[in-house]
């Protein structure tokens, strides 16, 4: 018998619908360091919008953010190599700030970088 916890009832909406504003800008990679356990890398970056944000509580100019894949995991070495992620590199991107709903308040998207695919994930077992 399998017990599932934390699942929604049929037809129940959890966390959404959510609406975001997209803020164009640039991310600067601060550091790429191995995590203490596993084969993952802690990738940190800062984000600077193309247009200054005024009175935006979700944006902090000097904040250092952590790059995560959609799965919530940190990227691995293959992902970092594939996208040429290294300290000092500047990447165009979008900061997505929540405006409605209870989803993640701040998300990031980078053109050409697929945060849904994890080349470092172990192969799925049938």
Q: Can you offer a commentary on this structure?
A:
This protein has 126 residues and is mainly β. It has a domain at 26-90. It is 5% helix and 33% strand. It has 1 helix and 5 strands. The chain has one helix at 77-82; strands at residues 19-34, 41-49, 65-66, 90-100, 106-109. A 5-stranded antiparallel sheet has the order 3-2-1-4-5, with no helix packed on it. It starts with 18 loop residues before the first strand and ends in a 17-residue tail after the last strand. Mean pLDDT is 87; it is low at 1-13.
Largest sheet: 5 strands, antiparallel
* Terminal-residue CA separation: 19 Å
| Secondary structural class | mainly beta
Average pLDDT, to the nearest integer? 87
For this structure, the quaternary state is single chain
Q: What spatial form do the alpha-carbon principal axes imply? A: globular
Helicity level:
under 10%
Percentage of β-strand residues: 25-35%
Strand segment count: 5
Q: How many DSSP H or I helices? A: 1
**Strand order in space, largest sheet:** 3-2-1-4-5
Low-confidence stretches: 1-13
- Following the backbone from N to C, one meets helices and strands in this order, namely EEEHEE
Which radius of gyration do the C-alpha atoms yield?
Answer: 17 Å
